[in-house]
C-alpha cells in the first residue's frame, strides 16, 4: 500500500489545478515513507495517504484559518491527530483550503483563493472543510480530516458527494487544532474524517480510538470502538425542520432511504422533531435531510440560516454523518420551479436560486445517533450506503 503514496500526490495536483483545493503539499512525504518502511510494526493505516484541513497543526507549516496575518507563524509541533495518524501508519501529504475565519460555508480567502466543486465548477465546494471535500470528491485523496462547528464536515461532504462524519464532541482530540477566534466554547468544534465512502470512515475511526490518542490527550474519553451488532434498529426520521424546506431532490432521496431501511427490516418512526422523548420512543438513530444540492457560487454568504439541518446536532453534541445516496434528476429540477419553501419569502427565493441548475449533482442524507453512540451512527451510515448501492445495481 505504501507505493500508493507516490501517485496520490500526482492525482491531487491534477485535482488541485482544476479546483484550487490544496494549500500546501508536505515536503517530508518521502521521509514519512522511509520511517514507515523501517518500522517493524505496521499500523492499521499503513501507507494510507491522508490530507488535513488547513488549521490542523503540522510542524513547520502555518495554520492561517484563511487569514494573512498568520502566514509567517509556523507550527512548532504536530497536532495530536497528526501524531496518531503517523503512529498508525498514515502518510500526511497535504493541507486543504478553508474560508477566511472558517465561519462560512463557502471556501474562499484572500491567500489561497476560491475552491470549486468537483462535480460542477460553477458550484461551490461548501465549507468550512471545502478543500477536503473538493480534493476527496475529485479523487485526489482517499481520506482526509475536517472540522465541524455547524456542519463544516457534513456540508462539503454533501456538496461534493463523499461520506463525512462528525463524532461526539471530544471523541477525537482537538489538541493542536487552531481556532480562528478564542472563546467559542458554547458549541464545541469537532474534528472528524471525510472519505470516498463509509468504509473509509469506519477504518479510520477504529484506528484512531486507541491508547496513543488517549495517552496524548487526557481530555479524550478512553472509549474503544465496536461495530459488530446486526440487530434491526428503530429509526426515526423527519422530512423538514419547520425552518428551511428541503429541495425536491433532497426530500425524494430521504424518502427512498426510509423505504429501503424499512424493507431491510428496520422499524421506522416519524416524530415531529428531536426532543427529550427520543429515549421514550426507544429510537436508536434518525435519518434526516441535508442541505443540498451544491449551491451556486456566491450564495452561501446570503443563506447562513440554511445550516439549520446541521447546526442542531453541534448544539446537542450528537454524532452525525452524511452518506451520498443519489443525484439530482431532471424531474427534481422541474419540481424546483414550483418550490416556494414555507413562506415564499426572501430566504426561500434565494435558496431556490442557490440550488438551481443542479442536474447530476450528488444528494446525501444525514444519519444521527445519541452522544457517544458514534459506532451506531456509523453502522447506520454503512447500511444506508449498502442498501443504495444494491438498489443502483438492480
From TrEMBL:
Question: Which domain of life, per UniProt?
Answer: Eukaryota
Q: Which GO terms describe its molecular function?
A: amidase activity; fatty acid amide hydrolase activity
Using the record's annotation, list all stretches that form the Amidase domain: 11-274
Quick one: a GO biological-process term for this protein?
fatty acid catabolic process
What is a single Pfam family found in this protein's UniProt entry?
Answer: Amidase
**Which InterPro entries does this one have?**
Amidase_dom, AS_sf, Endocannabinoid_amidase
Q: What's the name of the protein?
A: Amidase domain-containing protein
Q: What organism is listed for this UniProt entry?
A: Aquarana catesbeiana (American bullfrog)
